[in-house]
Amino acid sequence: MKKLLAVILLSVFAIPFFANDSIPNGYGGVELGMSLNQTKQALKHNMDFGYHGDRDVSLLPGENRVLIETDASRYGYSFLERCWFQFYNDKLYIITINVNREKMDHYSIFNTLCKKYGDPVSLNPEKSVWKSGSVTMSLERPLTLKYVDEKTFEELKNQSTVGPDAREMTREMFLEGL
After folding, report:
1. 73: Cβ–Cβ under 8 A, 6 or more apart, which residues?
2. Residues 6+ apart with CB under 8 A from 69
3. Closest CA to 168 of 157, 160, 176
4. Is the peptide bond before 16 cis (omega within 30 degrees of 0)?
5. What is the largest CA-CA distance in the chain?
6. What one-character DSSP code corresponds to residue 91?
7. What's the pTM?
8. What is the pLDDT of residues 7-51, one digit of tens each?
């Protein structure tokens, strides 16, 4: 009886855990960790993104930051709209994909992701989050898929030198006084 209970508990808790180990680190041939040139090549090979070449590439404020912005909304066949690919030190660390809401719905994508990758580790009305290793995949409302290299994202967040403003400090002091 104890063995049966252990197997049931292991199945209930382990299956969603192991299912999340396989979340993708990108979409459509574009993956986190790719260089800028590798990403450009992958975007050229997948017309769904609506990549038009170097005119879609911008430099962001700060050192070693590049952004590619694509727009597939002009193409009637694509399920995608605007997409953003953010780089730091020539490494793709955030992929943001807006899905065309006239062709796809939130529930269909959410249901598919749950079937493929298990239940999200975090769920609220604004977004659902799946994690695997250093990759976070989220489905955000209204209909955005996001892939984030958490290691690079945390590194950039830790480099931020902006401290809390007076309002934030006062808020914290109020909360500490409760």
Report:
1. 50, 81, 82, 100
2. 56, 58, 82, 83, 84, 85
3. 176
4. no
5. 66
6. E
7. 0.77
8. 333 333 343 444 445 899 999 999 999 999 999 999 999 999 999
